[in-house]
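Protein in question reproduced for absentees:

***
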Amino acid sequence: MDVTDYGRLFDLSGRQALVTGGQRGLGLAIATALASHGATVWICSEDGPGCQTAAADLQAQGMAVHAIACDVTDRAGLAGLVDRITATGPLDILVCNAGVAPHAGPITTASDADWQATMTINLQSVLWLAGLVLPGMATTGGGSMIIMSSIAGLRGNKALGLYALSKAANAQLARNLAVEWGPSNIRVNAISPGFIRTDLARDLLANKTFMERRMAMTPLRRPGEVTEVAGVAVMLASAAGGFITGQNIVVDGGTLITDGN
C-alpha cells in the first residue's frame, strides 16, 4: 500500500489476524477494532463457547470474525491452530493478548505452580506463537506482531510482582523479535495498558478508596477505555504504524509519568 494515501492509513482490508484471549475485555475490543477496519479476525481462547458467542455477535454486525478454541499452554494445539488459520490464507497480524495473574502478594511467596502458569501463558506461549507464525509472515512479505504487556512491568509492584515480571519480559521479547525479524518486514511491538475499565476491573472500579488514590496518580483523572487500547493496536497493525517496531507503547492516562499530584 502507498502510505501517502492518507485515507487508507488504518485500512486493514485483505489482512488476516489472530487475537489470543479474544473472547472478552481488551482482547475482544482489539478483535472488534481490527475487524472494523477490514481485517478478517480469528479470536482464540480456551473458552470455546465464549469465543463462539463473541464471534457470532460480531458477525451479526457484518464483521469477518471466526472463533477457534485453543489452550495457549498446549504447544501442539497452537501449531494446529496456526495451520488451520493459514490454510485459509496468510496471517498478517498476530496479537498475543492471553494472560493470567494467579498470584497476588510478595513475589517470593509465589508457588512453583503460580510461576509455571504465569510464565507459560504470559510469556512462553507468546514465544511459541512467534516461532509458529513469523516464518510464514516472512514468506508473504511481512506483517505485525503485537504483544500485550502492562505498566506493571515498568515499575515495582507489591501486589502483582510475578505478573509484572512476565510483562517486563513481554516487552523485552518484543524488542528482541523486532531486531530479529525487521529485515523480513515484520514489525513487533508491545502495548502496556494502565488501569482500564473492563469487567475484570469491576471490583476496583467500585472501590471508592482505591479509585480516589489511583485517579490522583493519573493525570487524566479517569480509567482508560478498551477502545483506547484497541485503537493503538489498529495503528500498530496498519500502515499508520509502518515505521514503528521494537516499542513498548504505554496507554495509561499518564500514570507512569506522574509525581502523584
Summary: The first strand starts at residue 16 and ends at 20.
